[in-house]
Amino acid sequence: MVNWNSLRDELEQAKQEGRYRPLTVWESRSGTWMTLNGRRLLQMSSNNYLGLTDHPDLKEAAIRAIEQYGVGSGSVRTITGTLDIHDRLEQELAQFKGTEAALVFQSGFTTNQGVLSSILGPDDVVISDELNHASIIDGIRLTKAHRKIFAHKDMDQLEAVLKESAGFKKRVVVTDGVFSMDGDIAPLPNIVELAEKYDAFVYVDDAHASGVLGKNGKGSTDHFGLHGRVHIQVGTLSKAVGAVGGYVACGQVLKDYLIHKARPFLFSTSQTPAVAATCLAAIQVLKQSDELIKKLWANASYFRSKVQELGFDTGGSETPIVPVIVGDPAKTMRFSDLLLEEGIFAQGIVYPTVAMDKGRVRFIVTAGHTQEDLDFALNALERAGKQLGLLG
Ligand SMILES: *Cc1c(COP(=O)(O)O)cnc(C)c1O
């Protein structure tokens, strides 16, 4: 007789170590204030940076697309699943990012999987920042390429690795544009310079930079003025853009190659018409005005500086992702629980997601937060911090 005892044992152990996480089930739409178990909570853990999940233009575009195209696309992209709105979305994305072409996938996760697994072979080497996202790590695992990891943002190590990688056919340097746990920005100008010196490709994953960094949210390449010098720009349509999906902005050759090689593209059904239309509407919203992005950054600066003034450690944060580093995992989760009692949802992040002594409660500031919302959070942070002895 078969049974699930081994799985049960593992879950039991996770419970004993405080790592067991039941799902949090929300009773309201994504937004600044959300309902959980009948309570209104200030949301500070969502990637809905610009509040686009609830934008009237996006909702109207989705409804119109359903009426015109129905709810499903019917197949993978290579058979009958490329509707004119899918094609238009890729043209718009390429134009927005200033690249020759763009190719859309079902998510940012599958974009990394699809691109990395397609372009890397046994004669190649991939050089990856140690804090890169899980989807990059998984994408690399799907290849037979040699792997080299450099310490987070350590350009001396990157140069040393590039130097010793001269024998490989392709060298690809991969980095997150904005790192999701620390909210710091990759040193893209230095990476590009080193890559050019050692003939390597540059691959940046802008999941947390899409709609956040650069003019009108065009991403980290635009932020640093590196147009034409970053070969592969991955973005997500699931965070600031407010819907779901991922894309790669690149040259036409790479796009054509991926259409023939990338397995999530070839073997998984394309975005629903409503999603494609929503993303098209989101790009229009981004292009029309940078008001939301300005508000986002003003909120982020205000919140981060006030948190620092209170005496908390925000690590390397320089974006709307503001971690409050607590250290010990149990204390970190206690801090998050105290904030929840105060009416604030801010996720505790502990080992093994981050190092054992680097537990943190991660705040994500959005354009939708009002000054009152942020002050409400700051007051709660001060009380909870004093209660836990985190502040003097
Ligand atoms: C969130 C994230 C992804 C995954 O994007 P989805 O569209 O949610 O699948 C990929 N890379 C990074 C760096 C991310 O933060």
From TrEMBL:
Top-level taxon of the source organism: Bacteria
GO biological process: biotin biosynthetic process
GO MF annotations in UniProt: 8-amino-7-oxononanoate synthase activity; pyridoxal phosphate binding
The keyword Acyltransferase belongs to this UniProt entry's keyword annotation: yes
Modified residues (N6-(pyridoxal phosphate)lysine): K239
Main enzyme class: transferase
Catalyzed chemical reaction(s): 6-carboxyhexanoyl-[ACP] + L-alanine + H(+) = (8S)-8-amino-7-oxononanoate + holo-[ACP] + CO2
Entry-linked InterPro entries: Aminotrans_II_pyridoxalP_BS (IPR001917), Aminotransferase_I/II_large (IPR004839), AON_synthase_class-II (IPR050087), AONS_Archaea/Firmicutes (IPR010962), AONS_Archaea/Proteobacteria (IPR004723), PyrdxlP-dep_Trfase (IPR015424), PyrdxlP-dep_Trfase_major (IPR015421), PyrdxlP-dep_Trfase_small (IPR015422)
Keywords for the protein's UniProt record, in alphabetical order: Acyltransferase, Biotin biosynthesis, Pyridoxal phosphate, Transferase
Pathway per the UniProt entry: Cofactor biosynthesis; biotin biosynthesis
Domain Aminotransferase class I/classII large: start-end pairs: 41-381
E.C. number(s) listed in UniProt: 2.3.1.47
Function as written in the Swiss-Prot or TrEMBL entry: Catalyzes the decarboxylative condensation of pimeloyl-[acyl-carrier protein] and L-alanine to produce 8-amino-7-oxononanoate (AON), [acyl-carrier protein], and carbon dioxide.
Subunit structure: Homodimer.
Name of this chain's protein: 8-amino-7-ketopelargonate synthase
